[in-house]
Amino acid sequence: MAFFETCQDVACVEDVLHMVIRSISQTSILASFLEQVNLICGCHIFVNLLQRDYEPVRLLGLQFLGKLLYGVHSEKKGPRFFGLAVGRSKSLSESQKKFVARTQPIFFAMSDRLFQFAQTDNLRATLFDVLLGGASPKQVLQKNNQIEKQKSKGSNSHFFLPQILILIFKFLSGCKDGSARMKIISDILDLLDSHPMNIEALMEYGWNAWLSASVELDVIKDYKSESQNHDDMAINEQHFVRSLFCVVLCHYILSVKGGWQQLEETVNFILLQSEQNGASYRSFLRDIYEDLIQRLVELSSEDSILISQPCRDNVLYFLRLVDEMLVSEIGNKLPFTASEFPGDLLESESREVPSSALDKGSQQLLTEETSRSGDAVVLIFVHRNTENLQSCTPRNDEHINNESWWNLYDNLWRVICDLNGKGPGKITPKSSASSPSIGQRARGLVESLNGPAAEMAAVVVSGGIGSALTGKVNKSVDKAMLLRGEKCTRIVFRLVILYLCLSSLEKASRCVQQVISLLPSFLAADDEQTKSKLHLFIGCLLYMRSRYGMLDDGARFHVISQLIRETVSLGKSILVTSGVGRDDHSESGGIFRETGSIHNLIQKDRVLAAVSDETMHMKTVLSDRTRQVEGLGDRINETLSLESCNKKAFDDDLQSVLTSVLAWDENRKVALQLSHEEQQQNVAGKWIHMLRSLMDERGPWSATPFPNNILRHWKLDRTEDSWRRRPKLRRNYHFDEKLCYPPSAGTATENENSSIVNDRSSVIQLPEQMKRFLLKGIHRIMDEGGSESCENDSNQSEPSFSDSPADIPISEVMRSGSGLKDVIQEKSDSSSVEMEPSEVLVSVPCVLITPKRKLAGRLAVMKNVLHFSGEFLVEGTGGSAVFKKFSTSKDCDPTKPDSKQNFVKWSSNYDTENRTLGDNMESESNHQKTLMKVKRHRRWEIGKVKAVHWTRYLLQFTSIEIHFHDSMPPIFLNFASHKSAKDFGTLIVATRNELLFPKGTSRDKAGMISFVDRRVALEMAETARDSWRRREITNFEYLMILNTLAGRSYNDLTQYPVFPWVLADYSSESLDFNKASTFRDLSKPVGALDLKRFEIFEDRYHSFSDPDIPSFYYGSHYSSMGIVLYYLLRLEPFTSLHRSLQGGKFDHADRLFQSIEGTFRNCLSNTSDVKELIPEFFYMPEFLVNSNCYHLGVKQDGEPLGDICLPPWAKGSPELFIARNREALESEYVSSHLHNWIDLIFGYKQRGKPAVEAANIFYYLTYEGAVDLENMEDELQRSAIEDQIANFGQTPIQIFRKKHPRRGPPIPIAHPLHFAPASISLTSILPATTHPLSAVLYIGLVDSNIVLVNQGLTLSVKIWLTTQLQSGGNFTFSGSQDPFFGVGSDVLPPRNIGNPAADNIELGSQCFATMQTPSENFLISCGNWENSFDVISLADGRVVQSIRHHKDVVSCVAVTADSTILATGSYDTTVMVWEIVRTRTSEKRVKNSHAEVLRKDHVVADAPSHILCGHDDIITCLYVSADLDIVISGSKDGTCVFHTLREGRYVRSLKHPSGGAVSKLVASQHGRIVLYGDDDLSLHLFSINGKHLASSESNGRIKCLELSKCGEFLACAGDQGQVVVWSMNTLEVVRRYNGIGKVITSLTVTQEECFLAGTKDGNLLVYSIENPQLRKPGLLWSSKSKSGVAG
Asked: What is the mean predicted confidence (pLDDT) over 705-714?
């Protein structure tokens, strides 16, 4: 529909219409199509196709609408469309409709649109095509003729859409071609004749339109009878019009009960037109009557249909209508007037026939009664002056002299005869030789008058002439039914008078014969009215005989006399009874004094009563007809007004629907556009990833292979570990080199660097075969690469590659548009789950808050992903005003279309077909460049959601922060209202739980999460508090938890996590943690640490007086965006943010962060500086170093500003400073006093009286609830307050309302390596159980079980006995329970596993790894000769999965701590990353009468998620961490390569300091990496960001390296047979533990910090805290164990 509305290509629209019409011709497709159309709002949305300028489109649109409108009925079986009936009609006897009914609005709309253009034959043909369901009238008639004999009356109409008749008749009224008009009417007539149901359909749906159209035709407006009309074409057209009226009305008269109503309404309509537009319509109506009567005569001659119902009732009423016409048409042509009654009736009769005279008294009474009757038009009893008689004779009237004028009345006699069972009753023709002559009939009439009066009496029966003449209409009864009892209708007597007065003698004679034949039935009744009317009728006949008897040479006298004689003869019984009942003494007596005279039969009182009744009847008839015509006019006007309103309402509704549909379509297009842009964004990201992989220092096409001396620039990697630390840096490919130079030298330096880059670019070019290979290989890379949805805002999608020599300009490759175009087109077929379409559950506007920018867009929740689509960048704070910029549309729902969204037009940065990315960057404005760098589309897997927190933005609870597993950085979203944020967060949680734990399955409540609102946050805070008190978590962990629950976020710089100053000594050479003066007073806020300065704050607090602003101690805050940028100045992206805040440049050097001691001193002395620290002070040394070589300016003393000046005790090492600061945070002094600081920042001293007492009051706008921003109407004021809140600090959410408890005492024995390493000793020796003796290659701990693998691939599993298992509770120590550790019995006895090892590999601990899944535990084994690695069940030792994907022997394996990812290294120099699938399926079968379980295990994915390259030699060791999102691989060539785990992105490489092979490596969760090489027998310590920190000789070959669970200690063992513990901060030896003089080949460290070591001869050594009770006899566990504990 939207396409039809908006497309301007008429040829395209025409083609689409052809296609759609052909398609919906199939019933199944039509049903589906209608279902979808009805969901949108109905078929009327296509009506605007009819107002297209191009006629073929209009006609096709008409056909299209016709199929839909008919299909609505036939497919849906619904009786109505837009509240009106559609489809095939029902019989009018079943569903009667009023004449003036409201026509369907859609057809008015179709008519208005179609007929604003010129009418053509094509339009006419199309209208009939729609009417007949795709056929022409000729085809329908031919088909009808073929099956005419088989067709039954119950079959359906030929009119598939009869409502289209409205348009056909509208076409007819506007057609100027007479031939075309006649063709239309002729076709309709043929169709009507072919089937009666067509007639009913026409009457039901098109009769109103036909009436309106017919009276507008010129031949009807200027209607002339055929005798007066000399235009043959006009005569023919009139004939067609009258024929259509005749066919339809005759059908209703003959066949439809109540058909007289349609006839009457039609007559009323024509009479209304006559009153409004002239008398020609009356002539037209008379001819319609004539045609109907002629048709009735023809039909009655074949079958006696007039005496059966419903025809008889309808004909009776039709005769009444003809009677009314007769009254109005020829009343003034009869020889009577309305002014006076023929008082001389008896006198005139006496003159001509003396024997018939009445007495004078009777004349006088008749005259008086007539005068009292008023001016009513009583056509029978009127009088014309004698002098006017001759002028009114038939011989002087042109129309009456015309023989054709009498045809109507001649045929009317035949109808009347048939009604009374006297048919055929044909009037004798003139040429009939057998008929008596006029003279003979006249003589017979004269003789008949001599009968005695007594013989004229007759029995009067009910329903005689009286009821015929005086019947009154009961409005509550069917009018036609009231006429059933009439034996003689009134028109009979009017016809008698008409013929006797005005017709020729021959016609008058035939009339008398007709009446005589009917008299017996007319005079059957015997009531008073019949008697009165009989008297009146005889009197009138006597009067006519006296007035007209002398015409035709006296022959007319005899004709009338015959009728009088027959009437008296047949009515003598009535006349006699009326005479007997008369009072002879009455004043009016004397009529029957002469019984021999006919005049004596007439009673004056009865005549007068009959005159009165007739007068009242005529008044009633005339007034009723006038009222009906006027009522019809009023109804028509009312209907026209109503239709006008309905039309306007329809147009308004149509416009509304169209607007909604177009908006919905626009949204759909926008969605498709956004989807396309997202695909392009992902393709570009993968393209960049691929290019960097190929061209970086480890890539095959690198211009600067590793190692090299090129300075690379870095920025913060937003990946968070489980403690919410962000320790890693990532490559900054968009570093601005200008920032490394003073502003004055920037231009020259830039030009110089630019020339260098250009020189490099000109030298280094990609070979043509590399280009082809690049474009060919991108398809596979796109499939293998992951989404970059979790990258920094502008990193992945920024299309610049010229920041380093490794990123060679690739414009030539990018210009290969066809290749990239294929990539983009085929991206829709990618197997990436993230791009699969999914149902949108809900979509709302929000603002994505990141440190670098605020991006407004819409967040959609789907079943498996969250999808954010950016619309525009937000300037300023991004408060409530930003949501007014969103479009007003709601969610996109096909059933509820949205209004059009005003999406901001973004300049696409992926238009690689016409321009390169570099060209785009150069051609766009600065603002567009910013937009182009923004990654608009983000997707996050709902299944990886870890927590959803309801938090604040600008002190309003309008935002949520979503945390993810796998170290994915959280996202911070701000919504328009509190409710939206809470509802949306709740929906995300519910969707996540339903996805991971569907209904109907066993739900793991531990895996389900809850929406973290305030209540849940408080509960979580209390849980964390208890854990902290029990020393289960560190101080750093606890503070990060509190910051998170208090709404502090890395994403929002205005509420960055806050940490305390813990040290006060920044000037000593060394730190003494045993002195209280070393530490800051944590019970006071920073502003109160210095007493002298505090006096100033206190004085201000007490002296401050403002009616609107409460008193405060500190005007600045301890945490704000400025403070964060102050500390992190040297680290991107904070460098750019700082410069942006300072107007595009660095602040003055003396005001920048330059010294730890100076900053702390300033916090003690400056009244505007009370800032605390940020988390980076306790884990990230890189922010203290100007590693990117920024030119930060020169201080006033002339010294350039560079790295941070560190305290003396840091020895110039940022790493040492961070380590000592962290050590201070975890010290006993801080642990004992940290609860005081928590009370100030997060607890009860944050607000109220305790805050005043603690001098902890800040400016009021830093507190939640200080102002009601949501209800603030002043936009300027609200904006100003939001700016102040955003820039000057926000107090965290208050978590605790009561005093925070103190931390519990330390438990040294729980962490012996930290508190008492000397307490650990060799406590147990478990001898070898294998024969022959073989070295223990691997020791692992999984789920309280010890996994042992010996040389020869013998696997055994034993129980690890601890105090935890003995007590059945948590791992705790108390005075009543001494620790105990040991090895228990076998869980899995020794057995051989796996395939034989390859000849060229030396098996060791690097070849094995354990992993734990919810269902089962497994061992991963590699080194097989067939280049595979095996997954072995620890339950039964069976190989459940063997995977071969490497091209050479798999040399090492590693598993993440949470057992979600497996990494394998190979001799083929690649590392593969595998996802661990945590589901298994089982099925049972019966074999040998025993049930056996066949397990289809899918523990590891069939294909790797990443294939990591970069090494040039065998991979020797691996480390993988989901917490740090890193894969580190060591190689035989002495290099270590770092890749990201989620994306497989290359990060950096390390070279072994001695250049030898990297034999082993370990890495801690704190970002410390230790490499060991057998060549130099030394340990080398590196930071996670590649900085070499320390080296230490091992004094012997090391066979195994293991880290303690806390990550602070490294345990190693080897040829010397000792276990040596090193510090992971300095590589200093902490403790050496002697063994039994045997080479130690394997080692592990338990959670309790015990050592399990395997020796070369197969012994297992246990190093643990010595238990004195074990020295007592009889306490060995071996007494009850199959395999005892060696102690």
From this structure: 87
